[in-house]
């Protein structure tokens, strides 16, 4: 047996542990063997899984490897295991965050509903099995959760209605007609979720008690290990400040060219009035998505990989968590290579004022940067490229620094390649970049700098020019996802620096397509590991 084969066997062993620990991840990855189960996140079960992760980690560390590719993948795999152990021993979302449990449950049902690459009979049986497990699962959650930060319980309460709608939708679409046993487990799941929601307020700390911050040591651990960054939280705070100031100047300059009589903030507010007609929102995104795909293909900017992207209206049960738009990739091991791009138009029954408020979120000049970020050549193309790799680690694992950094890099790069047709589109690409810069300050501030919830909301309202309701939803998400929100702008920085070093090393042989193909060949591996593989270490 070669060392590569031995490493591949250990990767398979790791995945066995991972899928046993989190069967919903297996379903999301396109595997069907665990479709009927929910995870066990009781203290005893988590402790057993952590021991298994540590054991497989030691075996992986001790293996002698001969190729750089194997060493790269081993480093990425070990870092993923270390982050998992850190998360469940230090941050403990299963103890502090009720939304952790509800997200696991609802994702497990959602994947069965939307992944139609499985036989209907299998999906119905798996759905019945997961629904049957809901009461015990939520009782286990109540027994495990303690001293939950107020913001986590409020976030969880905000998705309960969507969760109830999803369970009922599962019954409509997957429940066999006349199967009273299926109806019974569905009704019991609904009752259990109702009971869980009623108990949530009693689990919460007071708002002023905070409790969501992970602290600088844990935050820097994530930077070093999850994202393989050399920068500390303090370093990134300074970078975020500089980026916000730089983008603010660029916005003021471009706004002066578009309309010299107004500030960039007032210009953004006015331009949001230009949006697709009511009833044409989804179509507008679909047309622009196809234009982006054709542009990428015709210019040879990056190779296209097998797989399609469907632009669809957000289903009702996802409305609480997708206020504007969102992307869902195909599973890493699924035969169906179809991604879904959800778009949320004004809901039926809204009054005219509310409809206009929703439509302003779909300003016509914001649509272009959005489809570049989410579709081509952003997330969708990147996931298809990763999932086309033969190496399992690169197909499945990665850092948000690369996923979000690539998508943000694409917004800018495609503008440089001539995709934007109007200055207003470039303007809103800069508005989006400003928000990503402010996210660095909020992410670092919330978790390491003593920034409070209300202070973070006000910063977004004042500097990013977004509504208070949207800002509150943003900050609630940031509190639960430490060291994620900075990934957009910091990942863009890292990829741009890698691009420049690649260009210099390639010399006269450089092409943009070659750089993109080389980068995408590493899947979602952190940029520092890409540098190692490309021989571009600084």
The residue fraction in helices comes out at: 55-70%
Number of strands: 3
Q: Report the structural category.
A: mainly alpha
Shape: globular
Major β-sheet profile: 3 strands, mixed
How many discrete structural domains? Answer: 2
* Number of helices, counting only DSSP H or I runs of 4 residues or more: 24
Going across the biggest sheet, name each strand in turn.
Answer: 1-3-2
* Uncertain spans: none
Which value, in Å, is the CA radius of gyration?
Answer: 23 Å
Strand content: under 5%
- What distance lies between the first and last C-alpha atoms, to the nearest angstrom? 35 Å
Can you write the helix and strand succession as a string? Answer: HHHHHHHHHHHHHEEEHHHHHHHHHHH
Q: What is the arithmetic mean of pLDDT?
A: 95
Helices and strands in order:
Blueprint: H1 3-21, H2 23-28, H3 43-62, H4 68-91, H5 93-96, H6 98-114, H7 120-144, H8 150-174, H9 180-199, H10 216-226, H11 233-258, H12 264-271, H13 281-299, E1 308-313, E2 325-328, E3 338-343, H14 352-360, H15 364-374, H16 379-387, H17 392-396, H18 400-416, H19 423-448, H20 453-464, H21 468-480, H22 487-506, H23 512-520, H24 527-534
Parallel strand pairs: 1-3
Antiparallel strand pairs: 2-3
